[in-house]
Amino acid sequence: MISRQTTGFSTMTTPALDVTGLTKTFSGFPAVRDVSFTVPAGSITGFLGPNGAGKTTTLRMALGIIRPDAGSATLFGQPPTLRALDRVGFLPEERGVYRKMTAEQVIALFARLKGVPAVEARKRAAAALERFGLAASAGKKVKELSKGMAQKVQIIAAIIHEPDFIILDEPFSGLDPVNQAMLEDVILEQAAAGRTILFSTHVMAQAERICDRIVLMARGQKIFDGKVDEALAVVPRLVTIGVDSDDDISALLSGFGEVTRAEKDADGVTLWQIALKPGVDPQHVLRACVEAGVRLTRFEPVRPHLHDAFVRLVSAGDPLQPVEGH
Fold first, then answer.
1. Nearest Cα to 142, choosing from 186, 203, 95, 198?
2. DSSP secondary structure of 37-64
3. What is the CATH number of the domain that holds 151?
4. Buried/exposed code over 56-72 (b: 16+ C-beta within 10 A; e: otherwise)
5. Residues in domain ABC transporter (predicted)?
6. Splitting the chain (326 residues) into consecutive groups of 10 residues, what average pLDDT does each group show?
7. Would you state the pLDDT for residue 322?
């Protein structure tokens, strides 16, 4: 897996995407309600939320595919005109390409439609098929490919013209774990080449591994917009402490946070778990235990995950009051 730290960032100040107050209702159902966010140029932004949160509808409005009831969106500071869309590569949620054409033909066709010369289009198609592990299937018709292989062809078709801005709607859906990891690497490679990435997913772990920023959606509304670390900060840090005695250390620990559990493991070690107060460093707890003569057998800070942050943000209150990162 490529590290996110190896990728570069654009110095452009105009956001790749700027969404303001997008709203859409279908047959009286509010699918998207007053959603606003930006995607900085050169970033990898995850657009996250459960199925039915309004992610796909928001992306379609941002690209001008469907008309919003209210609000607006710009691509690189311009309305989503055909000229602006030439700088965008889009993988829609609905999968489907020309099934009677070969994989190589489909990819070359999409490149040509975006203005890539024929010889260069074929060259890029061959290289991309090799990168995605599809070189041996280049001459097969799409209808002869597995679902996952056909999906990789469609992903290649979305990025073959080397767009400035890549938007992928649920790109990991339908891929096995090996190909999911490969796609994560491809996303990082595209970002390293200076391209902006926005992808939607309901799998938080993928976004946590590769994103700079995230936008969280629930029930058609934005509930968070900011850096990954800022989202993780809403989850209290947990520390598990193993003690080789029956001593009650709850009074010692309570000064640092809420003691959430005390139980014995199979070896008779008492395990305490504490949810730290904001700003408390786990090392402060360790130092206090050592100074108090507590016989520690285990001291393990538990790293919060984006899934935990999402659950907390959704359950914390009304999504009409979104949390903003910095």
1. 95
2. EEE-TT-EEEEE--TTSSHHHHHHHHTT
3. 3.40.50.300
4. bbbbbbbbbeeebeebe
5. 17-244
6. 43 84 95 97 94 93 96 95 93 81 94 94 96 94 92 94 96 91 94 96 89 94 93 89 90 91 83 90 94 93 89 66 45
7. 43
Determine how β-strand 238-243 pairs with β-strand 88-91.
unpaired
- Please check whether residues 181 and 246 belong to one and the same domain: no
**pTM, whole model, 2 decimals?**
0.83
CA distance 271 to 256: 16
Total number of domains in the chain: 2
Ramachandran region of residue 115, left (φ > 0), alpha (ψ -120 to 50) or beta? left
E strand or H helix that includes residue 87: none
- pLDDT reported for residue 12: 55
Beta strands in the chain (DSSP E): 17-26, 29-39, 44-48, 70-75, 88-91, 165-169, 196-201, 213-218, 221-227, 238-243, 257-264, 270-276, 296-302, 323-324
User: Which residue range(s) make up the domain with 245?
Assistant: 236-303
Domain boundary among 232, 259, 281: 232
- 198 and 178 co-located in one domain: yes
Shared domain check, 82 and 217: yes
Tell me: do 228 and 241 sit in the same domain.
Answer: no
What pLDDT does residue 321 have? 43
Of 17, 12, 114, 121, the closest CA to residue 61 belongs to 17
320 phi and psi, to 5 degrees? -65, -15
How many whole angstroms separate alpha carbon 60 and alpha carbon 70?
14
Contact (CB, 8 A) for 127 and 201: no
CATH at 289 = 3.30.70.3100
Q: Would you say residue 313 lies in a domain? A: no
Let me know whether 183 and 264 are in one domain. Answer: no
In terms of domains, do 92 and 106 share one? yes
